[in-house]
Amino acid sequence: MTDTVTDRFLRYVVIDTQSDPKSSTQPSTEKQKNLGRILVEELLTIGLSDAHIDEHGYVYATIPSNVDKPVPVICFCSHMDTAPDFTGTNVKPQTVRNYSGGDIQLSGNPQRLIRVGDNPALLDQIGNDIITTDGTTLLGADDKAGIAEIMTAAQFLLDNPDIRHGTIKLLFTPDEEIGRGVDKVDLQKLGAQFGYTVDGETAGHIEDETFSADGVEITIQGVAIHPGFAKGKMENAIKIAGAIANRLPKDIAPETTSDREGFVHPIAVTGSMEKAVLKFIVRDFHDDGLADKEAMLETLVRDVMAGFPGSTYTFEVEEQYRNMKAVLDLHPEIVDNAVEAIRRAGLTPVRGSIRGGTDGSRLSFLGLPCANIFAGGHAFHSPTEWISRQDMEKAVTALVELAKIWEERA
Ligand SMILES: [Zn+2]
User: Fold this and answer.
1) pTM for this structure?
2) Which one of 93, 98, 242, 255 is separated from 283 by 20 to 30 angstroms, measured CA to CA?
């Protein structure tokens, strides 16, 4: 008997794979390898003889081509870790069969509801089987749904050798949620030309754009003096930092922007009278928009500093990641083939952009152009996370179709 995508999903989500941004090891938590080892065993069982996990926790495997002609080597990728935002220990998945509409009560926490008002996507799920947690943990559909779908598609291709396809590489990464998902990936070894992260939300969606992202660190050196003798001399770095934060434009903030607007966002402030450090993240879909926002921020800092002639500042910009669209536009077949695969899976393809980054944005710039396709989960990183069986099954179909389309069009 072969495993369904739901069997696999339910098996993977009970394995705690939370990553930890405070850890300096790779993977950040050793327990992520527990899932990695199970995946390797299952890959070997279905016949992928090169499946293995490396010392950094990455799982690699190859579905060999079954045609003579050359077909571009594609990669299906998803991440094994779950977000540090909410506990992933002791996940108890629950299934609402034949969902009839309305808010969903979670058995482990009667106060916690999955509300239709917060989850309009539930309106498209009537009659489907919806998997949730009991309300005390996150579910981990982000991104164990992607893993279950890739594993099931792999098994389907192996069980149906009449389906023609090129070489397909599978890659499961640790630590995506803490921004280190591709730090130790070996792209040479992977040997793929194009990739797909299976880490998006709503069924039918494909994303070929992410933010471009920088970090900015502003260090203020004030004038520190004994408060008893400070009149006319002291310039308190804490107050300078406060003045800067206070003058940030209110309409260029995460809490006031959406869709294709970028923002400037303070994420940390530390300091004393003598010295204060402000950390920001800056986001925009265009690199020049990013530069404009940074110039605006520096002008604002300079204006504030003018009122404190004895104090000095430094303003440092660090690149974090770049909009992957610049790379994907050079290879339109990546998105075109996925759009066709989604259509063949019976869905309406929806192209979108991510207000954030993915492993795919970094992979794209490391030499593996990567779009992001839906895994089907909703309300990521929270105890109200949910996914439907039917959407996972559509994702499996889309991946199988994608394998076929690359072969057909080669
Ligand atoms: Zn994810």
Assistant:
1) 0.89
2) 242
